[in-house]
Design brief:
This protein has helices at 14-33, 46-57, 118-129, 135-150, 164-167, 186-189, 191-202, and strands at residues 72-74, 82-93, 99-109, 114-116, 132-133, 154-163, 178-185. By secondary structure, it is α+β, with helices and mostly antiparallel strands. The radius of gyration is 21 Å and the shape is elongated. Homopolymer. Toroid-shaped homodecamer, composed of two pentamers of five dimers.
Length: 203
């Protein structure tokens, strides 16, 4: 079944080591089931590499994205929309554990001058991306975190992504983009403001 030494430092958490060993065994079993030999030279370190990769790309499972929005500052009198476009993300579709990736565009209308650092929005995107995901859920979770911490008058989150489960299997639709949109607050009820902000997100 191969060598399951994890190759980790002694200071790493014991639960992390056990998790890595479990993933390594599972990867080795998959290779055997496919008719491969996990002990051959080219695959000898593959279970270890995959285990480390999974622990990295799924590390957001143990992270609350709202924590990145704890730093909120007041800018009295600021009542204009804040827009951050083209936040790059990569995540894994929970249906086939294949990647999907693309861009997130975020807009929020501050209430009472409550703002956060622009980089904090990118950290929120990173946190919700590093877990098995659906694009619809990812879009909503970004909006949820902003709504919970900043309590803005309105939120709009747009996600554009390409899914490898469509490109690599099934219909093999290379280059197809999926777009999801979540609106909250004022942008749900005010059609004029919704259209204006949507045009900003689309660029």
């Amino acid at each position: 079944m191969g060598d399951f030494s994890t190759g980790v430092n002694s200071h790493e958490d014991e639960d992390l080591l056990k998790q890595r060993e479990t993933i390594m065994r599972a990867v080795s079993d998959i290779l055997v089931a496919l008719g491969e030999d996990p002990a051959r030279e080219g695959l000898r370190d593959t279970p270890k590499r995959v285990a480390r990769m999974y622990q990295d790309v799924f590390s957001g499972l143990h992270e609350d994205p709202r924590e990145h929005l704890q730093t909120v500052f007041q800018e009295d009198g600021h009542s204009e929309v804040v827009v951050v476009r083209d936040i790059i993300f990569h995540t894994m579709c929970e249906h086939h554990l294949l990647p999907f990736f693309g861009k997130v565009h975020v807009a929020y209308l501050p209430d009472g001058g409550r703002l956060t650092g622009l980089s904090k929005l990118a950290r929120v995107v990173s946190a919700v991306s590093r877990r098995p995901q659906l694009q619809e859920r990812l879009t909503a979770q970004i909006a949820d975190a902003i709504e919970d911490r900043l309590k803005p008058k309105g939120i709009m989150v747009m996600v554009e992504a390409e899914h490898m489960c469509m490109a690599m299997r099934g219909i093999k639709a290379h280059g197809a983009k999926t777009v999801t949109l979540v609106t909250r607050g004022l942008y749900e009820t005010d059609a004029e403001q919704r259209a204006e902000v949507l045009s900003l997100l689309k660029g």
